[in-house]
Automatic annotation (TrEMBL):
Aminodeoxyfutalosine deaminase/Imidazolonepropionase-like composite domain mapped to chain residues: 29-51
Record-annotated Amidohydrolase-related domain positions: 64-427
Gene3D superfamilies: Metal-dependent hydrolases, Urease, subunit C, domain 1
Record's protein name: Amidohydrolase
A Pfam family per the record: Amidohydro_1
Keywords: Hydrolase, Metal-binding, Zinc
Length: 467
């Protein structure tokens, strides 16, 4: 028999939900980690015989799962959590989010990003796609990327861009201050940020046109070209509001996805947030071109934006991942909540309890999320990056566990995560993120948020009981 080989970490005695090609689940399983990667997965007894770990973690009563990908978030919103409630999306943007964004300074954004990244790590999220546009100067964008990396997470900061002012932007009342740079200048600033965080960076910078419906189409064209030149994805909001496609049609004679396809801009690099209001032709085009969609059911419900056609998009061939859409439009960066809300929203919209299943939403949060972000991983397979989370399934709210997957989707919450690894590095354990003074961070975030609320004129929104 071969002598046991050394490994850094052995997680043993767990319910291991691998999301491998066979969708294997071990009821008494183990995961070995070495050199930042998954070295072995299988029954606990077998791995105990094969490996000599530097550290063993007893995971009885717990599940080991792939790390989650938050496919669409706005970390800068962390300082505005809990205000701006009860507004439909256009009023929410015009009366709350745009003014909030304009009053943020660079240190506000960096603090908010660090707070959001800590929240993500505590929730078992190992990869984030952060659509950042407030403020959008290169120094702040790079500081946000650094904050995410400081916590130990991977992913991308999609630099939000608007460029030259369009008729739709004018009609919707976007603040002129958002059009600080021309289309050409926006693209050049994004290129500079991308060069600073090239291949090998844990957090890349992507082109991130803010919204297809009211952004400059030439900006979108330039963003796609930048993404292709630098071998990254590009990211934008797509047809989140019911009037988005109609406005685009009135201005350009076609719907947004149809325009992308016609212009040769729709490809597998596209990561499109929301995609609620699509017609059959658009869904087919997204699938045919291998595009990626971030489904954000919690924010869609919060803003009453509508319900995405989950089955239609997946059946067409689009890769559908899950996003939280930031702390201002859903409250928590909690993929457990997003998975559950995905199930419930689809079933409620279709009146079909089989419209979405646990297995599908768990795939969207893990393996499809990794595909969306263009990263290896999303499954517990040998050689994959050791991005994983350990979830406590003990306690009255989760017992008995007849099926680990059901427990994870229906009863678990972010606060049940007890350990998160990203690239083999412990980024959350025993109630804290190593290297981060969370008490000081939260105090700083509260102070900056308080000043920001006063500066933006949002004090009335903080009334304890509103009528």
């Amino acid at each position: 028999m071969r002598e046991p080989q050394p490994c850094a970490l052995l997680l043993s005695g767990a319910q291991v939900v691998t999301v491998d090609a066979a969708r294997t689940v071990y009821t008494d399983g183990a995961v070995a980690v070495a050199d930042g990667r998954i070295a072995d997965v299988g029954p606990t007894r077998e791995l105990a015989a094969r490996w000599r770990p530097g550290r063993t973690v007893d995971c009885r009563g717990r599940a080991v799962v792939p790390g989650f990908t938050d496919a669409h978030t706005h970390l800068f919103q962390s300082l505005a959590r809990g205000i701006g409630d009860g507004l439909a999306i256009r009023r929410w943007l015009n009366e709350f989010m745009w003014p909030y964004a304009l009053h943020l300074d660079a240190e506000d954004a960096r603090t908010a990003a660090l707070l959001g990244a800590v929240e993500a790590a505590r929730a078992g999220i190992t990869t984030v796609v952060d659509h950042h546009y407030a403020p959008g100067d290169p120094a702040t964008v790079l500081a946000v990327a650094e904050a995410i990396e400081q916590v130990g997470l991977g992913g991308a900061v999609a630099r939000g861009m608007l460029g030259d002012r369009t008729r739709i932007a004018e009609e919707r009342g976007l603040p002129a201050a958002f059009h600080r740079w021309s289309t050409a200048r926006e693209l050049e600033l994004t290129r500079q940020c991308m060069a600073e965080r090239g291949p090998g960076s844990r957090v890349r910078v992507w082109p991130g046109p803010l919204n297809l419906s009211y952004g400059d189409p030439e900006l979108t064209r330039g963003a796609v070209e930048l993404a292709r030149a630098h071998d990254v994805r590009w990211h934008t909001h797509l047809s989140e509001g019911a009037r988005d496609p109609a406005d685009f049609l009135a201005a350009y004679g076609t719907r947004p996805v149809s325009w992308l396809a016609r212009e040769g801009l729709l490809d597998a690099r596209a990561t499109l947030a929301h995609a609620v209001w699509l017609d059959e032709e658009e869904r087919a085009a997204l699938g045919a071109h291998g595009a990626h969609v971030a489904h954000n059911p919690c924010s869609n419900a919060y803003l009453a934006s509508g319900t995405m056609d989950w089955r239609g998009l997946r059946a067409a061939g689009a890769v559908v991942a899950l996003g939280t859409d930031g702390p201002s439009a859903g409250g928590r960066q909690d993929l457990f909540e997003v998975m559950k809300q995905t199930l419930f929203a689809q079933r409620q919209a279709t009146l079909d309890p089989a419209a979405a299943r646990c297995e599908e939403v768990f795939e969207a949060a893990t393996v499809d999320g990794a595909r969306y972000a263009g990263r290896a991983g999303g499954s517990l397979t040998v050689g994959a990056p050791a991005d994983l989370a350990v979830v406590d399934l003990t306690g009255a709210a989760r017992q008995p566990v007849h099926r680990a997957l059901s427990a994870l989707v229906y009863t678990a919450r972010a606060c049940d995560v007890v350990l998160t690894l990203a690239g083999g590095r412990v980024v959350f354990e025993d109630g804290h993120c190593p290297g981060i003074d969370e008490e000081e961070l939260c105090a700083r975030a509260r102070e900056r948020a308080h000043r920001l609320v006063k500066r933006a004129g949002f004090v009335p929104l903080t009334t304890p009981w509103q009528r």
